[in-house]
Each structure stands twice: as structure tokens, then as C-alpha cells.
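Sample log: Ubiquitin-like protein ATG12.
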Amino acid sequence: MASETALSQALVEPSLEGLHALSASAKRDESKVIIQLKSIGNAPILKQTRFTISAARPFNAIIQSLRTKLGYKAQEPLFAYISNSFCPAPDENVGDLFKELRSGRATDRQL
């Protein structure tokens, strides 16, 4: 019975570390990331190749923006790669991708 009470108290009373982690993750990243687009293969060339996007936006926002600019329909395939090497998941945050890939470019906010 005593172990059940301790377990129920542990589940009800959140730890201070847990509250700090939760509040830190709840804060929205207001920073911006510069996106530089380059066409590869026979992809159409865009007039504007650089734009800024909020770091909190998902990678899918870039894909949707490209679809609009290029006039692609939802059924048409569109592949967007980072550094000509990999295609991230559409729900991956742009800010998280930047943080993972910015090694060597600490002052440049470009992805």
C-alpha cells in the first residue's frame, strides 16, 4: 500500500526539472532562418532563390511554398533536399534542421 501511495504521489507531483523542460519546449522559437534554393537537374529556376522563414515552421512549409511558386499540383512529385544530400521529414522544424546542420557556420543563419 505504501508503494502505491508513493507511486501515485510521484505521478501527481511534477518535478521541478520536468516543469523547466516543459516550459522551455513550450516557448516558441521566434528566430528566422534564411533559405537558399538551388535547382538541380532539370528543375525550373526560381526568380527569387533566397527567402526567410520562421525557425518554428515545419519543413513542409518550404515544400508548399515551392509548389505554389512553381505551379505544381498536389499530385505532382516535388523533392526538396538539404545540401543536395538528404530530404528531411515534412514535419521536421526548420530551426531544428538548422541547429543540426550549422556546424562550421555558427554565425550564418542560412539553411
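Observation: Confidence is low (pLDDT under 50) at residues 2-11.
Observation: Helices lie at 2-12, 16-26, 59-70, 94-101.
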